[in-house]
Write a structure and sequence with these properties.
There is one protein chain. By secondary structure, the chain is α+β, with helices and mostly antiparallel strands. The chain has 16 helices and twelve strands. The strands form two sheets. Strands 1, 2, 3, 4, 5, 8, 9, 10, 11 and 12 form a ten-stranded mixed beta sheet that branches. A two-stranded antiparallel sheet has the order 6-7. Strand 6 and strand 7 form a beta hairpin.
Length: 425
């Protein structure tokens, strides 16, 4: 009879301990609702209004100016000592170098001292969320104690073909790599066709987004998260420069209906299903989120708005970038130890109605819990800003409705998806 060696016995003991430890890990909604001094919490989350690219209130305002105002507002509303903020991460997609130099200058203008570091990053449409996650993880690992995750975009000034450089012969010679530069509208049309997502379904989703956003705006639901901004604005009819106060999202159209959307011509191909009314708007805006450990917040007397639980990022085929939330959300839920039935609200970016319709259906989500106040189709998608903007929108709606658990998510250009789990307090 063979006997186990001491090494084999030790290995067996370790495996047994690991199995026991995994079984002992608390899971479920009750677990993530528990409070711990080491929780990564949000003590302030706000945004500027989101305005129409090239037409709206911020069409003549530079991205760093939007960011500086957002930073000033964050410092004022939170009453945090700016010298305690050790790092800032800013998501941006279109500015050269992701705006690293200008955004550092914006932080100084806003009142942060030179001791507050800053970086900018670009993970396409999830850049704002990635900025928040990077700060949360830096706090969690002990690199910093307090930080700001933010996002900004001026699509009025920087959106266009120049945002992507020409591919080299090497990249063009690899088919999957080459697919990374296929325009999103074109690949979304193909996805809608392949997955049999009808124009009628897309227009119904878009109409609902507009109607919800219009109702929310009229009810003042966005006021808590929005910080008004006084800017210079050039009247396109007279070329007269005026000083105006931008205090609301100006892309929300009233009276939108399925019948009205059905009259809009397809944008990307003859007989297609995607058009200006059922895709996200080109927009300008900024958002910021202040994060720290719960123990730090309590020591400083900072009011806890909610907490960051975990996040996920995944890759998908470049031509199927729209399915990103479908793949990222289950990963985030698994990391949090909860099921989709334990989530109260979902903020899923509406890049295109086609991909949102498919993701919501495939995930089996309750549509009434998805973007209850509308989404990017109705009020816009300033690329680098959206992921940070969703945090304030989610927390405000959770607070208004007395609910607790929320998820933010989005598809990401070139074939990715990202999601995060949050808890309101």
């Amino acid at each position: 009879m063979l006997t186990a060696s001491p090494a084999q016995e030790r290995l067996s003991q370790v495996q047994s301990h690991l199995a026991s430890s995994e079984a002992d890990i608390p899971r479920g909604r009750e677990n993530i609702l528990r409070k711990s001094p080491d929780d990564i919490v949000v003590t302030c989350a706000l945004r500027t209004p989101i305005t129409r690219g090239g037409k709206g209130g911020f069409k003549d305002t530079a991205a760093p100016d939007l960011l500086a105002h957002t930073f000033k507002s964050l410092l004022s509303k939170s009453a945090i000592d700016p010298s305690l903020v050790e790092d800032i991460s800013v998501g941006n997609v279109l500015a050269p170098g992701s705006g690293a130099t200008e955004f550092r200058a914006a932080a100084l203008v806003a009142g942060f001292p030179e001791t507050t570091a800053l970086n900018s990053l670009n993970r396409q449409c999830s850049s704002g969320l990635q900025a928040c996650v990077d700060i949360a993880n830096a706090i969690r690992c002990g690199m910093i104690d307090i930080g700001v995750g933010a996002g900004v975009e001026s699509m009025s000034s920087q959106y266009g073909p120049g945002a992507v450089s020409e591919f080299s012969e090497l990249l063009n010679g690899h088919q999957e790599a080459k697919n990374c530069k296929v325009p999103m509208g074109v690949l979304s049309e193909q996805m809608a066709s392949d997955r049999k997502i009808t124009r009628e379904a897309q227009d119904a989703f878009a109409a609902r987004s507009y109607q919800r956003a219009e109702a929310a705006q009229k009810a003042g639901k966005f006021q808590e998260e929005i910080v008004p901004m006084k800017v210079k604005w050039v009247d396109p009819k007279t070329d007269e420069e005026k000083e105006v106060v931008v205090d609301k999202d100006d892309g929300i159209r009233s009276g939108m209906s399925v019948e009205g959307l059905a009259k809009i011509k397809a944008a990307f191909m003859e007989g297609g299903s995607i058009h200006a009314g059922n895709a996200s708007q080109v927009s300008d805006g900024a958002a910021a989120v202040l994060l720290m450990k719960r123990s730090t917040a309590e020591r400083l007397g900072q009011r806890v708005v909610g907490k960051f639980v975990c996040s996920s990022v995944v890759g998908v085929k470049p031509l199927l970038m729209g399915i990103g939330p479908w793949k990222a959300i289950p990963v985030a839920l698994e990391k949090a130890g909860i099921g989709k039935g334990e989530v109260d609200l979902w903020e899923i970016n509406e890049a295109f109605a086609s991909q949102c319709v498919w993701c919501v259906k495939e995930l089996g989500l309750d549509e009434s819990k998805v973007n209850p106040n509308g989404g990017a189709i109705a009020f816009g998608h300033p690329l680098g800003c959206t992921g940070a903007r969703q945090v304030s929108t989610l927390f405000n709606e959770l607070g208004r409705t007395g609910q607790k658990v929320g998820v933010t998510s989005m598809c990401v250009g070139t074939g990715m998806g990202m999601a995060a789990v949050w808890v309101k307090e």
